């Protein structure tokens, strides 16, 4: 009963198979191998555009921070949600890579920034402000609360951002989970909605360590390749990241994995609600945030369930907010057992 | 006939097997998993000391540059060989991670700095110099010319360095190749010889992407864990690097691979010499630097041999310096065929 | 009627006289001249300790940011008031100089952080948090609202900070104004109250551009001299900053100037209150924050008064918060005329 | 007999007078005052172009390093002379401000890089090199050896640089000394010769601390104002730098000072040659580099002469290279006495 995080899983079978399959023969180093080029082309197909560059990394923090490095300006501000991973969980990577841009938290509801909230925050930072000048906005899709921005909200947000010439970044650590929830195309959820650059996550959804920076607006970012190299994020045996993504993207495996994880989360949500537990946020991707009483939590822990309590959630006396994350590796049996114990 | 680089190979079978083997079940993220702890302990055994910390990374550039970040001081100087990878081939990573330390090249002979040369260079930079203050020295073992520092030379170099309180770093991208050449213990080649921190390379010798920063002198480096995290070099599914190193270090596989690569290089050297080709450097590890005439080069290329010409080598008219690198994946057949063609 | 800022004035007569007086003959460059040493000794007298180093700079932003650079750690957090100059008005200097430390705003009342608020904020950032690790706290004395921390509040704040091993920094851009308000000694307001390093401001109180970083806790900061030099903040003709401070500190001129400025502010406060205008903050130094109706503001502007409206102040309909700053150069006549017009 | 450095002098009388003269009344802060605008316009007149921006700083190191910050790219290289101040005497400021660009020394003769040497060095760094990519070249005019680039050599150098799209920077710490030597116009020595940005030095030639970054090619530099602000190099009472430059540029004072300093240097050179002392470099500006025997050096020191021995100069046994620097403050009497003693 592993619901601690989707990064507690290993690699999915198709990803592992691809790694084994591509581990033959010699290949040129540093990203010039045929497999890297093949996967790059696959990204162009998936996103329905040739005006796209893609840069592999092995961690989401690298993908996010390198993107910010490539649009950094002195005294710049990056607006994010007040609970964004890029703000709260990356050890100051963006501040470091961008040589000191300031992160500005924008208030959220269920993990999502509204266009109004973004607008209000931007109004506090007119051009020339000594606090700093807005440079970029980073939106997490799916959000850290397991919710998903609908396409019209994304468009409204990037619309507000473009009025101030901001670079629009999407942190897609759980990109696939959001995509299958919306049922739209990758293009619709990104460049058609005004996104300039995407951190495309593979790790949480079945890769061992494979992410990609997908750039739709080449003018918005500068020297991204050089930023990646000098940060030690270009791999000599780079086909190793490409191999993972090859397996990941093949035959819709990535979408199947995300659908499975989302379905497991939905089932958790339904079951918990049915047995009287409240949910702090709507469940739209692969995360569930129930409020559980202490006795239930104790029973679950005793039975070996792994999950984190989530202090950000306001909970009444004798109860605690909890975060449950599902993944490609989550089984129906785990979910059923968890729900049984939670039902008391 | 792949002699372009040891990073053109994939992963060795034992490494690949370990990756598959450890890809089961769930594990805590960010380096707190049991496998990471197990491999850390394995490092303590191998280096015969418990006063050792080890931090996994996936690229050698990250290992080198993060080490430099952890000992960085404003206006600091890092002395290296004038052909050091850390100076010439890492896109300015050390300068970036160390917030602008200056790299100072020291003259080399066959890729090795002498204690005298280091001493002379240090004398140019007295304390308080406005050019900068020496902070660290980085020695590559085996060197970029395929030579190996003997233990007494290492001790002499670190002795000179310690007089100025320098941090002594070893870039061990080809650590195993040097080790089996000397036939000494890992401890003798590192902390017993005055090394404070080691970039322990696994990638070139059979891993897909596994390196480790091994710190012997805990006082010399500061906040290394935090430097690694905020640089995006801590993996969520961190067991994946540990798994590679587990397979790498098991049953002496790493030493066997290095012995094989070195033997292939020796055979190349002997064969080329026998057929009248000169060598620019002694062959002590897994690199061979012959000077070949244009006709020979053309014949080899035509037969499909992959290698780089090496402009750093001075070569007479009608000839060119060439670098040949062997690896665990090099076969006797490749070597024999190469020699046959080279013999004309 | 110049109440826009205390940095709209030039240099006071004693400061200007000292600049002229010391502009004779030759002197060694880069801070090794006798005048620099003399003024350094003067600081030791004034702060009643020989365990003090002092580093001149020419801007307050440099003084603040260099201090933060010298205590920076990767992933570090600097806690400040939510309206602190160092956070809101220095173009991201601290973020830049500290290589990306994150500024964390702490809520204030009348510009002051309480020990309770600091404690609450620190509790949100336990050791090892991926958001970041608290490294320093910066307190502005006098605060940006013209209020002054009493000695016991300072001690309480540094007490809370020391429990987490924070470096305690005082931004003393208006140090003299705070000092004469409290009527205590410079030692009492700094190291005796737990302050590790002080940005000692001279510019706003009569210098043209003279600040000093005064370090009481030598272990807390590292390589400050080197940070200053490589940032271009060490002057070749460094006696020029020393000369200003020589004039500034002579015969109690700095305290007289601050007393005058404070007195002018008090008179403004009393007069405005007497004519029915409310004040947003207590007046304890040289700043007054009245809430004025639009008609009054218009009358004052028409008469040539220079001041800024202050949107941070909540004001009822038809009114606006205003900031008035007095300095050594403010005259009784200016104040009287302003009050007369404001009285309607 | 002060020949140690031109920065051992104080401020010249016209500069000091201007400081006193402009120290009246109030002025808006942070570079928006009328005097700053007036001096900016004066620069446009002097350089005969309106397509020029100018940013005041107080140190030459700041001017140089901020310029490099504004053209910095990841993995970038800055080519300079091997004895350039920006490389050897600024504590790593350029490396820091540019977030780790690497300085590449180019060999010099009498302090000057030749177009051929620049070309040769550039050839070593083709696009995409992992050592780094050339971004800028910095030329010191007058050079650190007291020589001056003729206009045709400047044009040849910038011509070579432009082929690789380098930003051409001139470190003009001794700009006026070079200008009066060549007898050309400021425009001819800068933008007409291909210079994109100039560090215009005032300090060594009569100011207390006044430099200016003059940008001719607005596209080559980015966000210079923001770089300056966040580095703490924008002064609140900014008219104080403007005041110095106002006095400096008025009535040709700057050119008169430079002519005087150059004349004093010429006289030193002639006198020393006449009494049999060799010169290491031609004397074209305000520096003289004689080779003196130990007895002469001892006699001069005993008589109170201040100067530095210059180990960079190769000198025979019993002799030592020496640097003599003249300034606006050097008197004929000092020179005469020095020559008399040196003559033995």
Q: How would you characterize the overall build of this protein?
A:
The structure is a homotetramer of 344-residue chains. Chain A is α/β, with parallel strands linked by helices and 344 residues long. The first copy, chain A, is 40% helix and 17% strand. Chain A is built from 14 helices and twelve strands. Chain A has helices spanning 13-21, 34-46, 60-70, 85-88, 93-97, 115-123, 151-163, 175-182, 186-189, 224-230, 239-249, 253-274, 294-302, 332-343; strands at residues 53-57, 76-81, 102-106, 133-140, 167-172, 197-201, 211-215, 278-279, 287-288, 290-293, 308-309, 319-325. Chain A has a seven-stranded mixed beta sheet, sandwiched between helices. In chain A, strands 8, 9, 10, 11 and 12 form a five-stranded antiparallel beta sheet that branches. In chain A, strand 4 (133-140), helix 7 and strand 5 form a beta-alpha-beta unit. In chain A, helix 8 crosses helix 12 (253-274) and helix 13 crosses helix 14 (332-343). Chain A is globular and about 55 Å long. The two termini of chain A are 16 Å apart. The model of chain A has no long low-confidence stretch (mean pLDDT 97). Chains in contact: A-B, A-C, A-D, B-C, B-D, C-D. Chains B and C meet through helix 10 of B and helix 10 of C.
Describe this structure in a few short sentences:
The structure is a homotetramer of 344-residue chains. By secondary structure, chain A is of the alpha/beta class. Chain A has helices spanning 13-21, 34-46, 60-70, 85-88, 93-97, 115-123, 151-163, 175-182, 186-189, 224-230, 239-249, 253-274, 294-302, 332-343; strands at 53-57, 76-81, 102-106, 133-140, 167-172, 197-201, 211-215, 278-279, 287-288, 290-293, 308-309, 319-325.
